[in-house]
Amino acid sequence: MNGPVRVLVAEDQSAVRAGLVLILRSAPGIEVVGEAADGEQAVALARELGPDVVLMDVQMPRLDGVSATRRIIGERLADVLVLTTFDLDAYVFGALRAGAAGFLLKSAEARELIEAVRTVARGEGVVAPAVTRRLIAEFAAGSAREPRADPAVLDGLTRREREVLSCLGAGLSNAGIAERLEMAEATAKTHVSRLLGKLGLRSRVQAAVLAQELGIQPSDR
Fold this sequence. Notes:
By secondary structure, this protein is α/β, with parallel strands linked by helices. The chain folds into 2 domains: 5-138, Rossmann fold (3-Layer(aba) Sandwich), CATH 3.40.50.2300; 151-214, Orthogonal Bundle (Arc Repressor Mutant, subunit A). 50% of the residues lie in helices and 13% in strands. The protein has helices spanning 14-25, 39-49, 65-74, 90-97, 110-121, 129-141, 159-169, 174-181, 185-199, 204-213, and strands at residues 5-10, 30-36, 53-57, 79-84, 102-105. It is globular, with a radius of gyration of 17 Å. The mean pLDDT is 83.
């Protein structure tokens, strides 16, 4: 992308927020354009400032991070990277369902935070493959109370797109998909973008959850 990655930091704890801002401002190519102390303010500032990425704490006053994420994604204001204390916090499931690009633990190292923001800005998810598989399985196991996906959504996909979807379900990055399906990484990225568009999804993590819900397994090659 041209220019710096513009980031809005939404975190209700002032000390934590200050630390996040300090880390991000120390990184070349990243600009912190605003800070929000609650979900309502996060949505308002996303509308006003037009950031590329919103770093969103899931547990906030006035409007929780899941609801704020849903609004920001629904209005296509920015991509959202959610922050949580626990890697399988129930709030995370809601945020991913709402279209967040992924999640990051608050205990992550500074370099991990910086790389996560850059990765989201490139249009990729930031959940590590091993964690993705565990999270998706956990999500699917506990999603009986949620409407499950309709297999008919796959009818418009090509065979290659179904293969890409299965790779997303396994938590593979674009490079991993390219290696698994023996294609260029740029081609894999194009397939992922087209797939998300066809399925009406905002993030590759949403696609991964869909693959798990529909029982789509990667084929051996």
